Structures are given as structure tokens and as C-alpha cells.
Amino acid sequence: MNDHTGPVNEKRGADMTTARKDAETPVDAGPPVTESTSSTAAEAAEPSEKAARRRPTGRLEAMALPLTWLAVIVVFSILETDTFFTSANAASILASQAVLVVVTLGLIVPLIAGDFDLSIGSVVGMSALVIAILNVQHGWNIWAAVVVALLAGIVVGLINGMLTVLLGIDSLIVTLGMSTLLAGVALWISGANTITGVDQTLVDVVISYRLFGIPMEFYYAIIFALVLWYVFAFTPLGQRLLVVGRNREVARLSGMRVSTLRIGALVTSAFVAALGGVLIAGTSGSAGPTTGLDLLLPAFAAAFLGSTTIKPGRFNPWGTVIAVYFLVTGITGLQLLGLQSFVQNIFYGGALILAVSFSQIIRRRRMKQGF
Amino acid sequence: MTNSTPLVRIRGLTKIFGGQRALDGVDLTIMPGEVHGLLGENGSGKSTLIKVLSGFHTPDGGTLEVAGRDVPLPLLPGQHRSLGFDFVHQDLGLVPSLSVTENLMLGEIASSRKVAYSWRAARERAAAMFARYDVDIDPDATVERIRPVDRAMLAIVRAVESIRAGAAAEGEAGANMLVLDEPTVFLPKQEVGQLFSLVRRITSDGSSVLFVSHDLDEVREITDRVTVLRDGRTSGTAVTKEISGRELVTMIIGRELAEHPHDAHAATTVGRDVVLSVRNLSHGPLQDVSFDLHEGEVLGFAGLVGSGYEEVVYSLFGASPGATGTISSGERTIDIASLTPRRAMSLGMALVPGDRKNSGSVATLSLGENMNLTVLDRYFRGWRLRHGTMRDNVRQLVTEFDVRPAVPDLEYGSFSGGNQQKALMAKWQQTNPKVLLLHEPTQGVDVGARQQIFDMIRGSTATSATICASSEYEQLETICDRVGIFVRGRLVTFVTGADITKARIADLCHGQASAPVPAP
């Protein structure tokens, strides 16, 4: 992967979010309207049964991305039968992006709850560095180092959450600041060096052990996707997070603990990013000052792209997984065709803009159908 | 005044919305130099009339004369400026985080072609303007920090100056009319006088003010003449000094008022158990409100805009922080300040807010998701949400509450207002509330659904007591056992039984009947 600097990523993230802010962040409830003019009464009375009977989502829309992914695989397999259409390449694609899958899945939790987390890339790096420093430089037991890294993630999430919710600062700003702050800390504690030699036990558990030829970290990512799917589809918690993200006032007036849920969501994304750091430390056996920073933009691109599929209009775990692999498949295929690494930036950046545009178009069309 | 040409003459103004006549041949004449009151109930056509004058609505008929000249309708947006009108609406249109000077010069900055803008000169002009109107506002203060009345006066000065600047640019002076749309609603009573002094200074040089208000006392204090609208028609115009408050109320609600005997307290609720005692509730405009809610009772709350009548339901639900006082239910007494919606729900309360779109529902989620919000935990069994059972629950509810179309998976926003409201009633009824709190339960709801909602409210009295805050007196007349009247933040009296009539409520809300102090 390319080495971007943190701020570049973050700026892109911020640009993209303005589009989403209009549509997604809860609108402040104004004072209750007391004067009902006859115009609104007449408009409201108009029966919209015909519009209402229309199917809210097209099945094709929901399956568009998986089908496109399939098409991309078929095209590259025909073009590059020898290099692309191999089990080794498939295994490589599936495993190499497991960290991105995990981090993106973590990111959709605050996104669903209506908050941004731009600090995930830095938290991945911080976590990997903490493990490398404690394990390699201080000789700590690897699992003790992992626990400390995860705790550090939780602390960062708590700070993000408290500042955002209790002080009412935009999560965009808080996590942007946190991101840069952590990147600075990483540079400091690493002495700008990459620290290698992380305990082989971790490396074994993350990539050396394989199942059906695919390193374990792929399965960790899938297990995590299952967990998240369970939470969002089958628990009241998932349903509540969704409502908090759509309209905080409605959530509050329906008896939900809005502040707790929002803080919890930001703690979750930071904790999961720290888990991502564990996977990175295990994948490469090392950590450096810029580790993880290049994950931020792909994670946002995949999260938004994922929200256009499976359950269009909602961030969802399986859409996220598919989006990550769709993007990576495209990039890998193009690189095998001989295009250089710049294609990665173009692909992720372009995907993010397209994904956000699509979700906006879907939303507009629904609004028109509805009202 | 009487022998000069009218500044503005509106004749036969008509505006139809979807077959309903919001304005039906309205006449209004405003003379130079007068303060002219415009009165009427909600929905009487005041807002529509003003929106025609501002160029927002295209009328379906009628003529407009300004200073004796015919002006073709509709007006273009912004054209009112060249005609010499400007508007100050209830929300004032100020930017709270900017300074007084910046707000005052907003229009000038927007249209200025100069590269450099001298804030020092602007500040001096601001100070000069305030001195001219004898208004004491610090030009450097941030608008959110100044008193509400100063904010209102700032908006008024700005509008008047904009009219003058417009007239100067057009090369004519005198055709000045300022429209004040409910300017006093958010003002403390003791500050209203300052605003009135400013209004008088504005009219002293021949400018006119159209003063739109709910408040009879204020209209009687400040206006020279008054026009009353009722159901989109001109109910009458009178010289303010020559008409009594009582006669004005009659013009507003369109019926001669019978003298009502002062009611004995709560004939229908005597002997019933008290389910909720509210003591010394203060919040925003509300001061020391105390009352008892009885089992199975439908208690209505009414008042003018700004009287605080609608705040009670939000305060009792813990929805608007900052309220003080206590509630007791059975043995328990609870500090209102400690209430949150969650706590209120656990005490058996339910709130259907008036602002359905922003506080009641999520338009982009499905009907079922909206309705099941309050009962999610019931359907989490065996470690999973039972979606099938939830859908069955919604199906049963939409049948029972007649929500159409009865399709749980449709987006909530695609339902009509009436069906949305019925769904919200169902959402909260299934929590089996002991106290149902409603604010404007039939706002934006068609006639059929309205009746159904009334039936729901009456039907729920077997299991719950209801508080319904509403600005529609007819609705209160239909559904309430008792109606509490709020005047300027105080619960001044109750009407009960056969006394609950639209006319009686209006009469009391306008403060035109002497009210006995209620026993709590």
C-alpha cells in the first residue's frame, strides 16, 4: 500500500462528509409548529396510497454491487487467466484486506449512529506500535501487549465520545484532531523508526495458520462481520443505534439513552480499530510511525459504497464486506494488468465520490416517491 | 387621517389551497401613519395574507392598491421593497452569533459592490440610527447576548431602515409600511412597552404598521384600527378605541357570547382518583402551574401563542430540560428537574409530540420500525429480535388503528399526515401508558382521520388519563372533560362539562372573562 500522510486522507474524508451531513445527521427539532395553515392540512390530506404501494427498494438496486463485483472477477479472469484467476491470488486478496474489512466494519457503527470517526487509521497505527514497542523493546508478553493496545483503543474512543457527546462538538472535528494528535504521538514514541520482530506467536495466529489455504485473519474478519450483522439485524441495540443516527430527538423522546449509545458507538470504532492494529502487527510482524494511516480513506470509501448495496440507504455489514472486496479486486486486477500503484488512489477516491453520489441519488428519489 | 389616500388597499383577496379557500374575498385598508391590527384565530388567513404581500403566495383573485396606484398581483419576491413594505416575522431573521452592527448591515453587505467595507463607519451609522429611534442597544454586542426585546427592536429598526433606503432609491418617500408578525410572542410582558414606544416613533412620521397578533390586550393598546379575519373572510374593521374586548372576541370567533356562570370546579372529575398531581411547574413562560389529573380524564390545555400551554406536556415528559416543580403519582413524588423521557416512560407516561416530522418519527425508516421503537425489548427473546412477531404486532396495530395502507415495510414518510399520526398514536398506546400526553394531535391531519383520532383519545380513557394541549378549541370542545386555560404562563382557570365550548375557551384565552383562581 502507498504511504499517504495522515492529513491528506483526512481532508478528503472531510470533503466527502458534507454531502452526507445534509442527508444523514439528525436535524435539530425546531419548536413545535403551532399554526396549522389550511395549505398544509390540504396537502397532508391528499392520499398518497399509490406512491405508498410502490416497493420501497428495488431488488436489483440491492444486488447491483455484488453483481458488478462478479462481473469484474469474470472480466479479469478472462484477461489474466494465469495471474488473476488463481487460488493463490484469491487467497491473497481475501487475506490481505482483512484488516481493512475489520476497520471498516468498526467504522460503520458510529456512522450508523450518526457520528464520524476519522481517527480509526491513527488508532490502528497506535495499537500496532504499542504492541511492537512493549513486545520488542520492553520484552513484554505478546498477549499482555495486545491487551494494553486494546485498552488504549478504548480510552481513545472514550475521549472521542465524551468530547463529541458531552461537550456537543462535531465528531468530525474531534476525531480529526485526535487523528493528527495520535499520528504525532506515533512518530514520537517510535522515534520515526519501524520496529520489527514482533512475537511469532501473534504472526502465527494471524497469518501463518491457514484454513482452506486462506490465512486466519480472513476468518476473523468474517466472524466479526457475523457479530455485527447479528447486532444490527437481531438486537434492540442495533435498531436503537439506527434510530439515533436518523433522528436523535425521536430517539430521545422514545426513551433511548442517546448519549450512551453515541459514546458507545465511538468507543466501538476505536476498539475495533485497535483490533485492526493487532492484526497488522501480526501480519507484518512490525509497526512503524505511519502504520494504519492509509486505511482511513479506503475504509470510508468501502463504508459508503457498502451502504448502496444489500440494504440500500443503510450502512450494513455485508454490504461493507462486499464493498471492500469489490474495491480490492478491481485494484488488484488493474495492477496485474500493468497499471501502477497510483491506480489505488484513483480507485478509492473515485469510489468514495461515486458511492456518496449514489446514496444521495437514492435518497432523493425515495423522498420524491414518498412525499 | 380619514381624508387622505389609503397607503395600502386590498380588495377581494382570494387564495385557494387544494379546494379550500384560505382567503375568501378579504378587504383590508391601511391609512398612512396608523398602527393597524390584524387579528384572527389560527387558520383564519392572517399568515396567507401576509405571504401574499411578501410575494410568497400567488393569489387567485383580488386587487392591491398602494398609495392610490394599482399594483398588479402577484407581487414578485422582493418587490415589496420597491413598494415600501417590509416584514418582521416572529423569528426576527437575525444571525445570533453576529454583532448588532453586522446584523443591522446584513442587507447592505450582501448587496455592496465595494471591495473594502468600513466597519467603523457602519458602527457609527448603527449608533446614529439607534439614537434616532431612541433605542439603547450596544452596536458591538453579539445578538445572542442582548435582551429579547432588543433583538425585536433591532429587527424592526433594520426593516424600517431598509424601507427608507428602498424609498430613497425609488425617489419617493412616504409609502412606508412595516408588517410586524406576532412580534411580542417571545417577549417578557414588562418589555413589550419599549417595543410599543418604538412602534409609535415609527408611525409619527407617516409610516404605517400592520400589527399581527393573537393578543387582544396588546392590539387594544397599540393599534388605531383593527381588522379581524375569520375563516378567510374579513369579519370586520373597527376603530380600536370604539370597540370592547368582548366585541372583538365575538368578531374573532364569530358568535355572540353568552355570559357564562363561573364554573364550579370539575363536576365530572369529582370523586375520581388522582393519577398525577403536578405542583409548581415552572419552565420558560410557565409559572407555578399546579393541577391534578384524574383517572380516565381527558384534560385539555389551551392558551394563546406564547402563553406556554403546550409546554406542560413536554415538561412532564422530561423532554425539555430546565423545568422545575414536582409530580406525584400514588405515593411517589418526583422532582420534575430529574425527569428524562426514559424515566417518564417508566412512570407510565407517553408523549405524542406536535412536531411529527422532527420529533415524532423518522420518515426514512419503515412504518413498522417507527411503531416498534418503544417496545423493542418485548420482542428480543431467545437472543434475537423476533421480526416475524414484530411484523404481526404492527399488522394488528395498523388494523386496529386503521392506518392505510396496512403495509409495515413501507417508509413512514410515504404515508399521509392522518395515517402517520394514527401510527404514532398506536406506537404509544401499545406501551399501555397511564398518562397520555398529546400536543396538537390532529395537526396536518385530514377530516376523516381527525375523527378517528378523537375516537382513539376518548376510547383510551378506560386505561389512561390524557392531557391534550391544542390550539384548536373546537377539538378541545369535542374531546375534553375539562380544559385548563393558560394566560401568560399561568394556569388561570378550568372549564368543565357543558361549559367547554369553543367560544368560552376563546373568551378565557383572550383574557376577556374574569377567571376564578383554580383549586389545584
UniProtKB/TrEMBL annotation, chain B:
The keyword Coiled coil does not apply. SMART domains: AAA. One of its GO terms (molecular function) is ATP hydrolysis activity. InterPro entries: AAA+_ATPase, ABC_carbohydrate_import_ATPase, ABC_transporter-like_ATP-bd, P-loop_NTPase. Residues 8-256, 269-513 form the ABC transporter domain. It holds the Pfam family ABC_tran. It is an enzyme of class 3 (hydrolase). Its EC number is 3.6.3.17. Keywords: ATP-binding, Hydrolase, Nucleotide-binding, Repeat, Transport. This is Monosaccharide-transporting ATPase. The lineage of its organism: Bacteria, Bacillati, Actinomycetota, Actinomycetes, Pseudonocardiales.
